[in-house]
Please model this.
Amino acid sequence: MNNKHHTVLLASAIVGVALLQGCATKIKASSTDNPPPAKAFSAYSRIEVKPVAFKEGYKGDHAGLAKIEENLKKDLAPKLEQWNARMANGSTLVVEPVVEEMSFKHGASRVLLGPLVGSSGVLMRVTFRDNTGKVIATPEFFQRTAAFSGGFTLGTMDNIMLTRVANLASGYIIANYDKAVGGPTGADDQAVKPN
Model:
């Protein structure tokens, strides 16, 4: 085998290993389903949604965080206006969305390197507290985008992942307003941490 073929073979092997390493996100959910809250959210006359934040000490992509925030606000605005127009009875539910982990591949790196930059994933926990500080629910929401789908769509699927995680969180809030029913985390069995 001449040096040219040897170099091509070696380069192919390196690219292959890089593709395999970048395919799966290490971010995992703890379950496929969220349990119901302690009580339906309609028990509260006011619902206040805090801005989406990273967990304390976590360094993440602020563009991704802003995208989640934008979608959560868009999903919930009409419902919050309707729910908060009721007669106040002094009870408030505070909703605190916190991104615990995020790997968001986007921009020039996704366009130039495609699937080589790896997959994207996001895990967000939303804590619901009443005005005394008592925790009513702590559901988590998970989404991911494979390296290849993110790469071949030039980052479109990575952005849609952030929209989907916001949709899951807002869907949980809306679904549990009239009756405490729980809801999906967004993870399938393969995306759940082993016990």
